[in-house]
């Protein structure tokens, strides 16, 4: 397994990923998963057996099935709150950065900030540690650094790492549910957020031309600028 090599001489290995970078509306959402060095192998074997991989390679039905097998209820999750899995050595957290902040600091910085915030939530629940490893989906490290935490960006990490893969699934299903809830809040569902969850589909672009932008649209994105 790809992740196993990173557990040598460390207290834990964490994986983080974000979803929603390409959306025209809604927040960018990240999830970070932390697995302690003790008992990590059985948990990773379980993830492998379940078929954990990049969230984009799975249907929503399959993602939700995997989360149920891990006893993760997306409907009860809240940002900036740590959640435990299996035992005290495994935890995860999610974080959001909203559209107005994305417009202020740009989507790359917002994505890195979301991953940083979900990581910090997990680390606060851990307490003191002497050495940890963070696997980051992509090619950039976080701007925030901890003296005891080694950061390793991994291109296509959600395909290679089970830890990052599970983080991506949690973030994806949480964000999709959030956007479905937003659907009825704006223009009585005319934006169809529940269908495209903010991505730039033809239906979404048509709604923008007819209705203009909602309060959760990213005004710095090109299709919104054109309006």
How would you describe this protein?
This protein has 227 residues and is an alpha/beta fold. It has a single domain, classed as 2-Layer Sandwich (Nucleotidyltransferase, domain 5), CATH 3.30.420.10. Helices cover 41% and strands 19% of the residues. The protein has nine helices and six strands. A six-stranded mixed beta sheet has the order 3-4-2-1-5-6. Strand 1 and strand 2 form a beta hairpin. Helix 3 packs across helix 4.
CATH fold-level topology: Nucleotidyltransferase, domain 5
If helices are DSSP runs of H or I spanning 4 or more residues, what is the number of helices?
A: 9
| Gross CATH architecture | 2-Layer Sandwich
Q: Indicate the CATH class.
A: Alpha Beta
- Kindly, what is the distance between the CA atoms of the first and last residues, rounded to a whole number of angstroms? 48 Å
Q: Order of strands across the widest beta sheet?
A: 3-4-2-1-5-6
State the domain count: 1
SSE arrangement, N to C: EEHHEEHHEEHHHHH
